[in-house]
Amino acid sequence: MSFPLRQYSPLDVMLGRQGADDFPQHPRRFLAQGDSWFSFGSANPTLTGNMMDGMAFEKDSCVVNCAHPGDVLHHMVDKRREPLFANLLFGPMAWRWDAILLSPGGNDLIDFIRVPFVDGQGLPVPPFLRALLTPEERGGDPDRASSYVSEQGWETFMQHITPQFQEFIAMRDSPDSQSQGVPIFVHTYDFITPRDAGAGAGSGPWLFPALQAYEVPQAVWLALTRLFLSRLTGLMRGMNLPNFQVVDTQGTLVPADLGSTGDDHDWANEIHPNPGGYAKLGAVFAAGIEALMP
Q1: Mean pLDDT computed over 239-265
Q2: Is the pLDDT of residue 135 over 90?
Q3: Range of the domain at 254
Q4: What CATH number has the domain bearing residue 20?
Q5: What percent of the chain has pLDDT over 70?
Q6: Which of 116, 172, 250, 274 could form an S-S bond across to 188 if both were Cys, CB 3.0 to 4.6 Å?
Q7: Predicted local distance difference test score (pLDDT) of residue 281
Q8: CA angle, 54 as apex, 51 and 55 as ends, to 5°?
Q9: Collapsing DSSP states into helix, strand and coil, what is residue 182?
Q10: Residue 47 lies in a domain
Q11: At residue 46, does pLDDT exceed 60?
Q12: Domain annotation covers residue 104
């Protein structure tokens, strides 16, 4: 028998509304933080949903979900920007959580890939501040995805994002935390197809215009995004943070086709899965958590 994961918003739990008065009765309680892959709204709640929708456990479990669409790691660890999460972790409303679920780094990576080679004042952006090389800067085999990557920029990205993960661990283990040392579970991001498929209302596409601006041949788009997302997975796995568990969900979804412009296979738009895709990811993530829970 499995129990679907019950989701609560932080304010519902704090104020005891919307049925959240039964929150303490769940045998297993998670606290979640992250981006649109976790958040209630996502880019379009009627078309996308979130990974929590596909999660179920052997024990009756619930999650208080503090995630926001578009969130990046340095916002997640900012107590002023995320007061509800901080309150539930080490504030007056804190609990001893069984685990913390985190959806991290996807927006950080996408934002970095989108950094242009010329800024808003018309000045060139140096390679160490961007992910991609201009046509004039490239060398090596044009059929290899790595030929389009600014390795200086990737080093900058790692130096920026690694302290954010470390700060998240420090928040969990702070003297005021009720959840010192509990496991943090993170998922990996499945492989995105750059395509002209936004989420509506002027949101997206994200990678498609960036690769066009850098004149990256379409023949290497899939390999290039796969390279970046695999590197993000490797970065998270290689940090060796205490009780920081990486559940690999990469390769779960059927990638969207190049040239598609709407819902395709497991994807609602360029960077967000559709409800069926999220259900697949949630099932894999939940199974990984179940296998690693103390």
Answers
A1: 97
A2: yes
A3: 3-113+161-193+235-292
A4: 3.40.50.1110
A5: 97
A6: 250
A7: 97
A8: 90
A9: coil
A10: yes
A11: no
A12: yes
